[in-house]
Amino acid sequence: METKLAESRLPFASLLLIAPFFLWGTAMVAMKGVIPQTTPLFMAGVRLVPAGVLVLLFAMLTGRPQPRTWSAWLWIGLFAIVDGALFQGFLAEGLVRTSAGLGSVMIDSQPLAVALLSLWLFQERIGLWGWLGLGIGVLGIGLIGLPDGWIINLLQGSAQAPSIDIQQLFQNGEWLMLLAALSMAVGTILIRFVCRYADPVSATGWHMILGGLPLFALSAATETQQWQRLDFSSWIALSYSTILGSALAYGLFFYFAKSGSLTSLSSLTFLTPVFALLFGNLFLSEMLEPYQWMGVCLTLISIYLVNQRDTLAKLLQPKISESETPASVKLLEPSKVELAELPIKIPESESEIWG
Known about the structure:
By secondary structure, the chain is mainly alpha-helical. The protein has 16 helices and no strands. Mean pLDDT is 77; it is low at 1-10 and 328-355.
């Protein structure tokens, strides 16, 4: 079943289909623009908690069940730590040190990590196209995230080994975004277990709230001047990233995932960094180095290959033509079959008729 809705049921379905990815990409640009007036952990909490309240209100209005058992709350709590606090925390801290476009590319590399985790935990096959996508993705992420000196030495063919400073490496914004992508990937795996005990929409709302509260606590303990410098336009940008970039985007994503093909929907993931790169350039004047553009292109190609690996394998699978079909499997034409040659057995009792 394809991810599409009849026009009579939902006008402008094609525009709504790409809306979650547009909202996620532009929310990154809005958050990047607000960072000079606020602090990262406070911003991450603002994006989570109010959005979680809105998602819970939607779940209650639509009659979705709330989690009731200890198992449900334990899984939601773990989901909140990984996909809520760690993901949004790393994302906000990384966004301080990198551009919105590059950050979005690193975040949306999480399908590569999901594929590897699924192979390890669930023995899901990746296939030729999946492995090719993973290899291209590693190269693309390396061009984006490695320090400039490393890349210049490699491109110039220098045999000099680059100095490695792990502390400096993980102060790099792209690597913090990579940690955010890994957190999101683990969260994607955890949702399988969460859905065994709780409704996915209700669990999403609760995990936003429970994941945002530790971020507010850390912000209160380690940050100052969280909201004092925010002006009207900054609050509008925060509201956009919270209401539209989180609550509405998740709601639309769940709606289309339920009513169509999740595989087809996930193939649109690469649109998120495209929107982030475009609007980051328009509104924030973000510019990339040529090798970074190369890394972006390679990463987007890898995301597409990993998401569409099964579809590509089916499309390119060699088909057996009729002329190549072995004679032993060809069916005889009915006109050439003599009735007397058919081995017909007449049942002798009613039990033989009904088996």
